[in-house]
Specification:
The chain is an alpha/beta fold. The chain folds into two domains: about 1-95 and about 210-365, Alkaline Phosphatase, subunit A (3-Layer(aba) Sandwich); about 105-205, Alpha-Beta Plaits (2-Layer Sandwich). The chain has 13 helices and 14 strands. β4 (about 145) and β5 (about 150-155) form a beta hairpin.
Length: about 375
C-alpha cells in the first residue's frame, strides 16, 4: 500500500470565512495569480478539477480525480499549524507571536548558547541581512529576528559562524522557546558580501514537538512514513521513519518520483516550499506563476505512475497571496485533489484539514478511526 500526501506550501484558493480576523479579507493566492497572469496554463491541475475548486463559471466535473476545498479549524495561519492539522491535530490556541522577544527569553538563550545577539525585531529574511549583515560581519554576533508567524529566526554568515555551530545555538533556543509556545526556531545561514548576501539551502527548522499525530499512529502500525522537504522539521521528527530534506521544489519533485517506485507499505509526505519562501513572502507574482507551471509539468509524468489502488492527496497548508499587502501568510481555504480507485466526486468544502488524517487512517486500515475528521471515501 502506497500513498502520497503532497503539500503545495501556501497555494491557497481564497479567503477563509474568518479571514477578516487575521486582516486577510479578500486574499486569494491562486485566483489573483490567474488574474494577473491570464496566460498561465496548468492543464494537469485543471484535469484534476481546479476550475471547479476556483468556482470558474461553467466548470464541469472532470473525470480524473475527486476534488474540493478544505478550511482550517485551528487558530493561526502558519506552516506548523497547517501541517499539524493535516496530520490530525487541531489547535484551539494559536502559537505565540512577538514584535520583540522578551529580554528574559533572549538572555536565557544567550547564556545557554554562549552567544550575544543583534536585532530582535520583525523583518523579512532578506531585509534583515541588508540591515544587520554588515554589523554581523564586524562583530560575529548572530542576528535574531522574527516575522508575523510564530518563529524565532537566527541568521549567521557561514564563514563567521559555521553551520553546525548555528544549529547548536538554535537547539539552545528551542529548549527555551518551548515555554513561550513558539512554533519554530529557524537557522538561517547565509553567504556573500554586503548588498549581495544570499541565504543558503542549509536552513533548518527546529519545531515544537507535536502531540500524537496520524504519523505516529501509522508508524506504530508498521507503515513507513517518509518525509520529503521540511516535513520532518514540522513534526520535530516525531512519527517520521526516513527524512529527505530538499533544497527546492525541483529536488522535492525528483525525490517523490524516485521514492514512488519503492516497495512496501508507506506514506510519502512531501512539502514543496518554493511557492511560499521564494515567491509568496517576496510578493513575486511572476516567480509564483513559474513555479506553478513547473509543478504542473512534473505532475503530468507523475500521474501516469499512479495506480487505482494508490492514494494521492494534493493540498496546501495556508495561503500567501503575492498580490496582497504585506509579506505575511494569508488565511485562506486550500485546494484538495484526491486520486484513489478512480473516484471522481466533488468532495465539497471540508471543515477541517484533519479529514486528511482520517482518510489516511482508513486507507491504511488502522484498528481505530482517527478521532477527528471525516474520511474522503
Amino acid at each position: 500500500m502506497r500513498a502520497l500526501l503532497l503539500v503545495l506550501d501556501s497555494v491557497g484558493v481564497g479567503e477563509a470565512p474568518d479571514a477578516a480576523q487575521y486582516g486577510d479579507e479578500g486574499a486569494n493566492t491562486l485566483g489573483h495569480i490567474f488574474q494577473q497572469r491570464p496566460d498561465l496554463m496548468l492543464p494537469n491541475l485543471v484535469s484534476l478539477g481546479l476550475p471547479s475548486i476556483l468556482n470558474v463559471p461553467g466548470a464541469a466535473i472532470d473525470d480524473r480525480a475527486s476534488f474540493g476545498r478544505m478550511q482550517e479549524r485551528s487558530a493561526g495561519k502558519d506552516s506548523t499549524t497547517g501541517h499539524w492539522e493535516i496530520a490530525g491535530v487541531i489547535l484551539e490556541e494559536p502559537f505565540a507571536t512577538f514584535e520583540k522577544f522578551p529580554d528574559e527569553l533572549v538572555r536565557e538563550i544567550e547564556r545557554g548558547a554562549g552567544a550575544r545577539f543583534i536585532g530582535n525585531y520583525p523583518r523579512s529574511g532578506t531585509a534583515i541581512l541588508d540591515e544587520l549583515g554588515p554589523e554581523h560581519l564586524r562583530t560575529g554576533k548572530p542576528i535574531l529576528y522574527t516575522s508575523a508567524d510564530s518563529v524565532l529566526q537566527i541568521a549567521a554568515h557561514e564563514e563567521i559562524i559555521p553551520v553546525e555551530r548555528l544549529y547548536e545555538i538554535c537547539r539552545c533556543a528551542r529548549a527555551v522557546a518551548d515555554r513561550y509556545r513558539i512554533g519554530r526556531v529557524i537557522a538561517r545561514p547565509f553567504v556573500g558580501e554586503p548588498r549581495r548576501f544570499q541565504r543558503t539551502s542549509r536552513r533548518h527548522d527546529f519545531s515544537l514537538a507535536p502531540p500524537p499525530t496520524i504519523l505516529t499512529g501509522l508508524r506504530a502500525a508498521g507503515v513507513s512514513v517518509i518525509g520529503v522537504g521540511k516535513v520532518a522539521d514540522m513534526f520535530a521528527g516525531e512519527g517520521i521513519t526516513l527524512s529527505f530534506p530538499t533544497e527546492n521544489n525541483r529536488a522535492g519533485m525528483d525525490k517523490i518520483t524516485e521514492r514512488w517506485e519503492t516497495a512496501g507499505d508507506w506514506l510519502l509526505f512531501a512539502n514543496l516550499l518554493d511557492f511560499d519562501t521564494l515567491y509568496g513572502h517576496r510578493r513575486n507574482i511572476d516567480g509564483y506563476a513559474m513555479a506553478l507551471a513547473e509543478f504542473d509539468a512534473w505532475l503530468e509524468n507523475f500521474l501516469a505512475r499512479v495506480l487505482p489502488d494508490d492514494l494521492v492527496i494534493i493540498t496546501a497548508d495556508h495561503g500567501n497571496d503575492p498580490t496582497f499587502r504585506g509579506t505575511d501568510h494569508t488565511r485562506e481555504q486550500v485546494p484538495l485533489f484526491v486520486l484513489h480507485e478512480n473516484s471522481r466526486r466533488d468532495l465539497g468544502l471540508r471543515l477541517t484539514f484533519a479529514d486528511v488524517a482520517a482518510t489516511l487512517a482508513k486507507f491504511f486500515r488502522l484498528k481505530e478511526e482517527w478521532p477527528v475528521g471525516i474520511p474522503f471515501f
